[in-house]
# Entry
Amino acid sequence: MMFFNPYSPRRYLASSLAQGILAVSGRAKSVCTAAAITLLGLTFLACWQVVCANYAGLDAGSVLNAQMNTLNAQRQYGFIYQPIGVNDLSGAEAPPMYQFRFDGQLREKSALDRAYRNALAVFKQENYPEVIKQCSDILARQKTYASAYLLRGAAYFYQRNFQQAREDASQFINLAANRKNTLDKAFTLRAASQWLLGQYQEAISDATQAIAYNPKSARAYAIRSAAYLANKEQSKAWHDVSQALALDKNSLEGLFSRAMIYLSRAQFSDSMKDINVVLSQRPSCALCYTIRGFDALALGDKARAEEDARKTLSFGVEFPITYSLLGHIANQNHQTADAKQYFERAVALYRASADVARAERLEAFIEDMTPPVAE
# Structure
């Protein structure tokens, strides 16, 4: 077991470069601002092993798992990724596939369209349980009202019911095969759901379909990047992140993704720069503060690292990597008892999310942990 030496951070980082590649796994939880389905995550290959090979249990996968496993309210989380927005769902109440011959059918269509518009307005208010109820009522009246599946799928996604979100996206795709201008949104939603369910190859396939329908979809590129990273295909992931930012240089999804890749390459200043831009636009992104905290710690700013870790906790969410960060800060400050308490809390959270491998690695680190010795 190698130990982190607080007196020689640069030597410690250098010794970490030979460590292997760690990938991000996937269930993610996410919250976006009005009208957006959050998503994407990313694998940071050599990432955390480059950043902290001796930070047992603290690897790239931890960062993304943190997004996915916390049980707190999504609105508190404030994640950045927005693969589908409200504007993508607006106007979908009158699909050209519907052919009505009788006045009664026309009246029914009009009533369903009004119900859909009302559900869309509720979606904008982020009242997702009510959206699900209203869309289900629409589908009870007409099972082929495709747009209700897409809207309900988006609401399920916000509610962290990724399997149902995937199923509703599939229903829309099956019913609306001729709606070329909307299919990319459905494939994007299904790709996001696949990724969050750990179906990385399927996510890549769906994101590729979304890009085929809309080659200018920065969102689809960002999602496919996450899936590639989860599949340990870093070069493809970097290509897609670059493509997303080429399409939209202000894309928060792209900036966040690039920050994570910079982190994986031990380019801490570049990573912090991108994260700061994201936080300037989305200050409610709780996990972003922890990521910036790791950048700060690697750059030798322990005070900033601790401030950012505690900022994450102020949102009322608990990520295991946040406690791991606090543990390593305490260990550097020779506060061994406090460090062990933080690490033990991280272990409990890893186990609660069924991330046994990281829990066991961190437990081994705690067991072998000794007070640091000055050089």
